[in-house]
Write a structure and sequence with these properties.
Elements lengths: L2 H11 L5 H8 L3 H9 L6 H19 L6 H10 L6 H10 L39 E11 L2 E10 L5 E7 L4 H15 L6 E4 L8 H10 L2 E4 L9 H13 L9 H16 L13 H15 L1
Parallel strand pairs: 1-4, 4-5
Antiparallel strand pairs: 1-2, 2-3
Helix pairs in contact: 1-2, 4-6, 5-6, 7-8
Protein name: IS3 family transposase
GO molecular function: nucleic acid binding
Function: Involved in the transposition of the insertion sequence.
Length: 298
């Protein structure tokens, strides 16, 4: 029995046994019983306040696709005017039986290849940029569905971690990545010299793709074969998307998953999802803060 049930039991048995005896046997202070009886065994003010906090935490968690753990949920709740710390939020999550999305364990990455890349590695694992559209990272992944696979190509801005271009298809032809980088170019209109970093997949080393980059003024950069660390930012983006969306259920059709990936990228990841590396801001808010500070200092 929980405490509330014990108090009600004592209330029912007090005509047969002394209250103090019942309290001693059941491990409840007699003052606790009398205080509870005075309010009709209803919840205390503290319990009501805790229930309110628990509801607020669950609402914030649900509004962000149920993927936030204690750290990001704390940042979200603080942005709403509450001052609860991370330990308090973690306790509320336990109380309401909610948890964040967790990444699957992966095996160790293979050793680096000594093969020379088609384009030089201009990044060398330094996935940082001082401003938007200085460095883009790109990659392709597959998403499993009942019908087979859906392939997703993305272009991520290293400054804000915003997915600036993406494309989906049921094939791995070069058109897939051309569509993704084409979206990024159309949306961002980058100045000549923006670095486009990828792995050495056959799509990225194709003549057609290299020609497209050169025509747009982008500088090609490629990591080495067999080293996911050389394109770690893109790998991290895919891991986040799969953990928070793809792995949470089975997908019957490509169309169904395509619609959800679109909603996740444009309706959540870019505009609302908090990133710890971005001061717990979303990519959109992080870029907006940069532009505002730039205007003020100009």
């Amino acid at each position: 029995m929980n405490r509330q049930q014990v108090l009600v039991f004592i209330d029912a048995m007090k005509t047969n046994f002394p209250v103090r005896t019942l309290c001693r046997v059941l491990g409840i202070g007699h003052s606790t019983y009398y205080a509870s009886a005075a309010r009709g065994h209803g919840p205390t003010a503290a319990e009501l306040a805790e229930a309110y906090r628990a509801d607020a935490a669950r609402d914030a968690w649900a509004e962000h696709r149920g993927v936030y753990g204690a750290r990001r949920l704390t940042a979200e709740i603080r942005s709403r005017g509450h001052t609860w710390n991370r330990k308090h939020v973690a306790r509320l999550m336990r109380l309401t039986s909610i948890e964040g999305a967790h990444r699957r364990r992966r095996g160790k990455y293979g050793k680096r290849s000594v093969t020379t890349a088609t384009a030089p590695d201009l990044v060398e694992r330094h996935f940082t940029a001082e401003a938007p559209d200085r460095l883009w990272v790109a990659d392709i992944t597959y998403l499993r569905i009942w019908e087979g696979f859906l392939y997703l190509a993305v272009v991520v801005d290293a400054f804000s971690r915003r997915i600036v271009g993406w494309a989906m298809a049921d094939h791995l032809r070069t058109e897939l990545i051309l569509d993704a980088v084409g979206m990024a170019i159309q949306r961002r209109r980058p100045e000549p010299g923006t670095i486009h970093h990828s792995d050495r997949g056959t799509q990225y080393t194709s003549y057609e793709f290299g020609k497209s980059l050169r025509a747009s003024g982008l500088l090609a950069s490629m990591g080495r074969v067999g080293s996911a660390f050389d394109n770690a930012m893109a790998e991290t983006t895919f891991a986040t998307l799969k953990t928070e969306l793809v792995y949470r259920r089975a997908w019957a059709s490509r169309h169904e998953l395509e619609m959800e990936v679109f909603s996740y990228i444009e309706g959540f990841y870019n505009s609302r999802r908090r990133h710890s590396r971005l001061d717990n801001l979303s990519p959109l808010d992080y870029e907006q803060r940069y532009l505002t500070q730039k205007q003020v200092s100009a």
